Amino acid sequence: MGRAEARRAQRRAEKSGIRRLFTWRKLLGTALGVILLGMGAFAVLYMLVDVPEGNPKMELQANVYKYADGSLLARTGEVNREIVSLAEVPKEVQDTFVAAENKSFYDDHGVDFKGTARGLLNTLSGKGKQGGSTITQQYVKNYYLDQDQTVSRKLKELVISLKLDQKKTKKEILAGYINTSYFGRGAWGIQAAAQAYYGVDAKDLNVSQGAYLAALLQAPSQYDWAVAGPNGKRLVKARWAYTLDNMVEEGWLDAGKRKGLTFPKPRDPKPLNGTAGQKGYIVDAASKAVIKQMGISEDQFDLGGWTITVNIDKKKQKQLEKSVGTKLLDKLDTKKRKLDKDIQAGAASVDPKTGAVVALYGGRGQNEHWISNAGRKDFQPASTFKPVILAAALDQKSKTQDGEQITANTRYDGTSKRPVVGSDRYFAPENEDDHDYGQVTVQTAMNQSVNSVFAQMGVDVGMNKVMETAGKLGMDVEGLPAVPAQTLGSMGASPLEMAGIYATLDNHGKKVTPQIVKSAVHQGDEPLKMPDAIGDQVISRQAADSVTSVLTGVVDDGTARGSVRNAEGLLEQDIAGKTGTSDDNKSAWFTGYTPDLVTSVGLFGEAAFDRTGDDGKKVKKYAQVTLQGAGGGGRVNGGGFPAEIWADYMGHSLAKASKFVLDTDMGAAVSPPPASHSPSPSTSASEDPTPSGKPSDDTPSSEPPPASETPPSSPPASPSGDPSSEPPTGPSTEPDPSASIELPDLSGNNRPDNSDDR
Fold it and tell me: Which of 327, 353, 460, 541 could connect to 645 by a Cys-Cys bridge, CB 3.0–4.6 Å?
């Protein structure tokens, strides 16, 4: 026999051996054995597992909130749930849940074996939650078991579901399911959900509303119309349509009626009992902080059992609310002036030494305005951003275009519409009222909020370094372009965010992150460790203290002088701060601080109702609109209502006058060195201009502004005795480079960071 034939014989023998080892009979026998073994194991499990008592977690508790002194702030509960019988729910609404979750519910035996098998495989392979559970299985998971995704829990769910289907009627199971399910907004069960989303009892729901609530169960947080993003809204509408189409398919809904149904947008969220007024905003901010720190979902948090103590000082909180009332709300007449309905106020007050948020004003109450104005980031901070530019310049030891190091006494050209030098983008911002200042020191430019000076300074420093410094100080700059237009404060920011930035300056450059929660503990657990509010040194002490020193000039000699410097309780107090008025007067700010307290106050123009504007264009509710004319006056500057609110609150909240202890040799609070006489150069526009929009600011107004911001006929000299601080009387000798080119419109939906937060 040749070698080839020997090899072939060997292979035939090996194949024959494999066939003998794996015959179809043996394979079939093995499979049957595994099946019988599984059936036997399941039979044993079926005998051993009984329907247990209801899950103790379903006996939900309240979450309790306390002020910093331990007194009760609010109690959210006892639990937002009210059990209703199935008879109190319209039949069509009952059917929406069956159509959305389990069309075979009325015919199955409580279990979807295929879906359960898929769930088991997903769990074993680490792919996460199962799909395809029946209504009975979901009810068992809600009421008898827990949300753990383990094989043992799924097997128990299977057995209990089979037994429960024999023990209870389909109506009892469906009633249990819709009464124990979580719908978001703190609503447990269909009755609470009907009230939360449509303001009606479950018995008054229609089939369209029922389909939305049924769709909502798949992802309550993502599908809540009030907070859903574009994708969430698309998905919930698709789920709603799927539910109704299934009802038609099953014969539970007439096809003609289905065609006539439109998506029933739910109402805006309303606060739970005990959270009216400012309490709702505080509770909401504290809850979100705990949820974020724990890494849990809203529905897990709303199971209750939390005791949360906030940093809010009861006396300061009461005073802030009073100051907003007396200095703003009492001066608005919403019956005679519809514009006054558009005014939204937000404020946050922070202890710079601890980061504690000691007072917060979110709006006119969550019953009227759900979104907290203290935390919203969709309005421009305007000139309150200028101190960030100066902080970057001083921390980086930046120089002007001609090589001079930037200090409080460096001179810049304050000509309105002056093109910035050294940028690859054309930018020529207009000063407020197109006012020309000529050569001015940085100190005077800050006092009078000169746009052209800080636009040039931003380019001198490098806009990437400016934005980097903003991030270090506490501003959310992710995704924002580092362009000269940002020097006008054209990004979005909140009063809470700005308070944190200024608190970091107040804390000598050591990072302060505002903290609403003082302590949080869940029943039976160790207290939750919250993030440290005081962080690392993010800019040098000298840079931070120099900015503080310069900002005292804004109060003593600048745009905040009238409202703040001579206010009751503040005459002997060291104060640093900055006003801000955004493009088209859609926002107005004053953010200021003493050695012991930082407070940021913002006013925002938000359309209170749909209407047609003066230009004939449609204005939708919640759109950003101008503050111009609010309170019966003209332009609303940062030195007006915001500064007045700030001064009244701070004057009544500070126990005694205090002085800044600063490590600096520049600015308004110290005797400065001799003034420099080397101004930053003024040259022609960039060769590569780009279209731009027109800012406004807080500099002296030629139209009648509030009395507090009306400048003297000749502005006071800076602390250095800078004679150039007096604005020129004649027109600018420079050509107007923006006569045919506008500055970028970065307001509203055109801002680089624009997002819909409503």
Answer: 327
Q: Enumerate residues 6+ apart whose C-beta is below 8 A from 73.
A: 65, 66, 67, 279, 282, 283, 310, 312
* Mean local confidence (pLDDT), 461-466: 98
Using an 8 Å Cβ cutoff, are 625 and 606 in contact? yes
Query: Is 70 exceeded by the pLDDT of residue 213?
Result: yes
Could you give the 3-state DSSP secondary structure of residue 46? helix
| Element counts in the chain: helices (H) and strands (E) | 22, 15
DSSP state string for 399-464: B-TTSPBP-TT-EEE--TTPPPSS-SS---PPPGGG----EEEHHHHHHHT-HHHHHHHHHHH-HH
Report which listed range, 175-184, 226-235, 321-330, is most confident: 321-330
| 3-class SS letters over 579-629 | EEECHHHCEEEEEEECCCCEEEEEEEEECCCCEECCCCCEECCCCECCCCC
Q: Identify the three-state secondary structure at position 308.
A: strand
Q: What is the CA angle 165-170-172, rounded to 5?
A: 100
Q: CA 577 to CA 592: how far, in whole Å?
A: 4
- Is it the case that residue 280 has pLDDT exceeding 70? yes
In a 13 Å sphere around the CA of 87, the CA atoms on its Cβ side amount to 0
pLDDT at residue 679 greater than cutoff 50: yes
Q: Is the pLDDT of residue 678 over 50?
A: no
Task: List CB contacts of 447: < 8 A, sequence separation 6 or more.
Answer: 553, 554, 557, 558, 559, 668, 715, 718, 725
The Cβ-side half-sphere exposure at 135, using a 13 Å CA radius, reads 29
Q: How far apart are CA 526 and CA 48, in angstroms?
A: 36
**Is-contact 588 627, C-beta < 8 A?**
yes
| CA contacts within 13 A on the Cβ side of 628 | 10
Which percentage of the chain shows pLDDT scores above 90? Answer: 56
pTM for the whole thing? 0.68
Nearest CA to 455 out of 402, 502, 385, 545 is that of 385
Q: How far is the C-alpha of 51 from the C-alpha of 62, rounded, in Å?
A: 28
pLDDT higher at 707 or 552: 552
- Structure-token match 């940093």, residue found: 311
Per-residue model confidence as pLDDT tens digits over 68-116: 999 989 888 667 777 888 999 999 999 999 999 888 888 887 677 665 5
Q: What pLDDT shows up at residue 304? A: 83
- Residue 291: closest CA among 313, 279, 308: 308
- Bridge partners, 591 (sequence order): 578, 600
Residue 77 falls in which region: left (phi positive, over 0), alpha (psi -120 to 50) or beta: left
β-pair type (63-66, 306-310): parallel
- CA 274-276-183 angle, 5° bins: 70
